Amino acid sequence: MEPGASLRYGPRMKLTKPPSSAAHHFGDYLREWRQRRRLSQLDLALEAEISTRHLSFLETGRSQPSREMVQLLAEKLDMPLRERNVMLASAGFAPVYSERTLDDPALKSMRDAIDLVLRGHEPYPALAVDRHWSLVAANSALLSLVEGVDPALLKPPVNVLRLSVHPAGLARRIVNFVEWRDHLIQRLHHQVNVTGDAALSSLCEELRAYPIPDAARRPARTREDHAGLVVPLQLATDEGVLTFFSTTTIFGTPVDVTLSELAIEAFFPADPETAGALRRMAEKRQAAAGA
Predict the structure, then answer these.
(1) In whole angstroms, what is the distance from residue 111 CA to residue 118 CA?
(2) β-pairing, 126-129 with 240-250?
(3) 115-141 pLDDT tens trace
(4) N or C: fewer beta carbons within 10 Å in the chain?
């Protein structure tokens, strides 16, 4: 990840095998997701407009679902597309949602859209990540902020959460480390609850286990009251302490598993000082590139 680069795509995203839960009986899988959503049989039956008796028979295996019923229940349970494919497989049906790699020609327009958003966000940092928070692409503003971290953390696939809170990553430069780490863990915990992803659960535990840098044990620098609306990221740089807030963008109504799991994290300056510093950093990058 050279500082002069504008965008970097991660390694080829390979098709993955269905989770082990694909071998489960459909009824067991259905019950697991109903309970994860904290719904009773009556709740789900009302949502799907079927009888509680029929739903009970589906869960116990006394009735076999049609493809349409599987898709209906998956929709009412708000399951990720990847898990909907698994549920279909558990009922004996072929997957409905495709899963292409990002270098597939069919996704070129999507890659172009990601590039356009990331470049258009400069001089502010932005990145695209997959479902496990592995870096897919980033703009040059973000790449300049990660200079000086352990090169091992920048070897693909780069996990941006690990990069943020690892002792050899950005941790020692995050002024409000505890606040930011807890914010990331909270987001990750919510994602685990929504998706049931075991890899994300393991990542969450890993982040919790990292030590707090000595510098982060001091009170965070207070620059502006954000009224509890956002959790800022305060990052120490050669330009001083930069303060950001972030937004997340996802593709609307995707029907491809890969696209449904992509997210763009865009960082905005939380104060005029940060905005000015980012513009100066961009000018330095442009000058270096033209030298």
Answers:
(1) 11
(2) unpaired
(3) 999 999 999 999 999 999 999 999 999
(4) C
